[in-house]
User: What shape does this take?
Amino acid sequence: MGLFSVLGAGAIAYAVWEKSRPDQPRLLNGEFYAGGFLGAAFTPNQDLRYPDGFILNNGLTRTPQGSATLFGNKFNNSLTGGVKLGYFFHSIPYLGLEAESSVNNSYVNRRTLSVNRPIQGMSQAAVPNDFWMNWTTALHLVGRYGFLPDQEVPFGRLQPYVGIGPAVIVLYEEVDSAKNFGIDVMAGVRYMFTKHIGAFVEYKYNHQWDVEIEQHPFYLPNGAEGRGMAHLDFDCHKVVMGVAYHW
Assistant: This one.
């Protein structure tokens, strides 16, 4: 968020400076925009892998164990929100760059999961109530096309677009946090009500490879607690609506 804040502050300062000199040519003749959005986030079930083993504590002894996988850990759906800042090039108005930052929560209710191999003769284990926060900051290469052009919006009021790029994703979990590089893609459509004000609907998807959560717990039916380094591939789908100002 620090880098995004610097970019946003710089863009706002530039916009204010340009507005203060209306009779002078712009230094950057392309199209800037800034906006915000709200929507819903959907996190698919994830398998929790403990490939390096785990420590099993039965209240009396702490015993190292081999690898294990807990199948189908389910995350609840949640709200999401964020901000974006972008620029379409003057010479190639179909192409642009966009920086975006968004946050969503993923709750996990206590659930019993199947295990890939028996642990102390038991084929199930429970994960506790948990709270995850997914903070994603992405840089997109954006392509768009314009329909319904008119004198006020020559490029076209209706603008479908797609974007893809790298992302830095931070997962905050109750026992640990993980910082990961991932990929973020989006597809949406924007309608320009005026040459400055537009609304958009957008689908987003981000993926993180091999997220590591230290000391992640699970519980056996006999009350024993297992803890170890949990690995998972984390996916998140989002559907959002927002408004942006273009200048």
